[in-house]
Amino acid sequence: MVEQKDRSDNIDLVNNNLRLILSSNSYHLAHEDIELLNTSEMRGVRMLLEISKPEQILEKEEIISTIIVFGGSNITDKVSVKKKLEKTLRELEKAPRSTLLKRERDRLKILNSMSHYYDSAREFSRIVSRKNQTQEYCSNVIVTGGGPGIMEAANRGAFDADCKSIGLNINIPKEQYPNSFITPGLCFKFNYFALRKIHFVMRSTAAVFFPGGFGTLDELFELLTLRQTGMKKVIPIILFGREYWSRAINFQLLADSGLIDDNHLKLFQYADNALEAWEIIKRNLPTK
Fold this sequence. Notes:
Layout: H1 11-23, H2 34-37, H3 43-60, E1 66-70, H4 78-94, H5 99-113, H6 116-132, E2 141-144, H7 150-160, E3 165-170, E4 187-190, H8 193-201, E5 204-209, H9 214-228, E6 237-240, H10 242-248, H11 251-256, E7 269-271, H12 274-284
């Protein structure tokens, strides 16, 4: 009778088993196991990481406070929007009956007329950054959503002044890439809108809202609600461009209808140029 060998006597089999052990996810350190961290059960851990990572970096950079700048991603500099308009007009010449191209032409003409907001956001950020950042002190640092349009303009103003600025990007299906003017090391990518909002608000001493769409409106009403309920300390909330905001939102209707108190209309102020916005903020800043 032939004696059967145990599996453990097969050196090749044992060595292969060891390789499988070492390469198994179970053998990875928990914090290095990406597959584990991406499970639904680990959502709380991921959320904690999104709170802690930016916080630690901003503290290390000694960033004491921030000024939020929000605004539309489609409001670009005049040169960029003019190129898009010219391209659309050329296409319209080839297809003069296209309702889609006519619609695009009309929208681009309006965006072209709004390009001055890009310039104002850039100027505002440049003024704020030069006034508040020194080698010893780094306060009221511009923070944006890190994308194009008004966000780019604000980061660009700080870049012009050779100062720091922050970008808080978000991981969304329509990929949002960071603009080129954010300070390297201060651009963060978030998976959760709610945690991104926390980082916008927690250090803020003021917020300036340029014309924008759903995202801008979402952030505006989030901050107004925090102020209305007393969950956020008193800070200047500035709507930049009275004409736009007066048409976009009828705040007076809300008050006249009894849906908000009259004093809630004092939660925000209007400004129409960069220096005016900075002067409003400066009057409300705590003394150093």
